[in-house]
């Protein structure tokens, strides 16, 4: 295979950029920025999320069986950047951003445009990222706005 073409073609996939919320078995919350997310079914509403194998987030999703997805607004690159590294909660803040919880106990950020929460219903634990299929069990909208795209940030994750 032409490696350069593979990289260029795979980087041609369009993505959003989201903060995925997780929690550990004691209910301590965590979050990471991810773009490998897509809806895969209307009924039931399902999404597939790829999570880097061996990270704290991956281990938490595997154990807790739940995650949240926060839809960031266009221009919120600082918020996306804050969750590229491991974060620790400080009261009701993660990386300085206020959150609350609803059904799953995973963080929902006040600054997100909208959010949904998932229960893991299937998984494919192969490759360097593991795929978790989540059924959407709760959702909410904080305000109207345009969602962030990976392209606008100038970051790449794929190839
Ligand atoms: C642009 C960009 C996109 C990313 N997308 C993903 C992703 O889709 N899935 C993933 O597991 N990690 C992704 N990452 C890496 C995570 O943000 C990073 O591994 C995170 O710090 C893991 O947090 P943790 O150590 O608390 O689990 C991405 C990183 C960047 C820079």
Question: What this model shows, in words?
Answer:
The protein has helices spanning 3-10, 56-64, 77-82, 150-153, and strands spanning 18-23, 29-34, 37-41, 46-52, 66-71, 89-90, 93-94, 97-100, 108-109, 114-124, 129-141. The protein has 159 residues and is an alpha+beta fold. The chain contains four helices and eleven strands; from the N terminus they run αββββαβαββββββα.
List the keywords.
Split_barrel_FMN-bd; seven-stranded antiparallel β-sheet; globular; NADH-dep_flavin_reductase; alpha+beta; single chain; four-stranded antiparallel β-sheet; 11 strands; 4 helices; binds flavin mononucleotide; Pnp Oxidase, Chain A; 159 residues
What is the CATH topology descriptor? Pnp Oxidase, Chain A
The helix content, as a percent range, equals 10-25%
Number of strands: 11
Question: What share of residues are in beta strands?
Answer: 35-45%
N-to-C order of helices and strands: HEEEEHEHEEEEEEH
Average pLDDT reading? 97
Overall CATH class: Mainly Beta
The CATH architecture is Roll
The best one-word shape is globular
Tell me the domain tally.
Answer: 1
Task: Detail the topology: elements first, then pairings.
Elements: H1 3-10, E1 18-23, E2 29-34, E3 37-41, E4 46-52, H2 56-64, E5 66-71, H3 77-82, E6 89-90, E7 93-94, E8 97-100, E9 108-109, E10 114-124, E11 129-141, H4 150-153
Antiparallel strand pairs: 1-2, 1-5, 3-4, 4-11, 5-10, 6-7, 7-8, 8-9, 10-11
Flavin mononucleotide binds at residues 30, 32-36, 50-52, 55-57, 84-86, 129, 155, 157.
Family: Belongs to the non-flavoprotein flavin reductase family.
GO molecular function, one term: riboflavin reductase (NADPH) activity
Keywords: Oxidoreductase
């Amino acid at each position: 295979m032409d490696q350069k073409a593979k990289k260029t073609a795979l980087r041609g996939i369009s993505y959003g950029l989201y903060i995925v919320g997780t929690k550990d078995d004691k209910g301590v919350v965590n979050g990471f920025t991810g773009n490998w997310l897509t809806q895969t079914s209307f009924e039931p509403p399902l999404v597939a999320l790829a999570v880097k194998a061996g990270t704290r987030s991956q281990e938490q999703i595997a154990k807790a069986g739940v995650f949240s997805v926060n839809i960031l607004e266009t221009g919120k690159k600082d918020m996306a950047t804050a969750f590229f590294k491991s974060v620790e909660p400080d009261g009701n803040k993660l990386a300085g951003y206020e959150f609350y919880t609803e059904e799953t106990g995973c963080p929902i950020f006040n600054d997100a445009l909208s959010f949904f929460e998932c229960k893991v219903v299937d998984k494919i634990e192969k490759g360097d990222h593991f795929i978790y299929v989540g059924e959407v069990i709760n959702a909410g909208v904080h305000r109207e706005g345009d969602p962030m795209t990976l392209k606008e940030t100038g970051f790449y994750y794929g190839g």
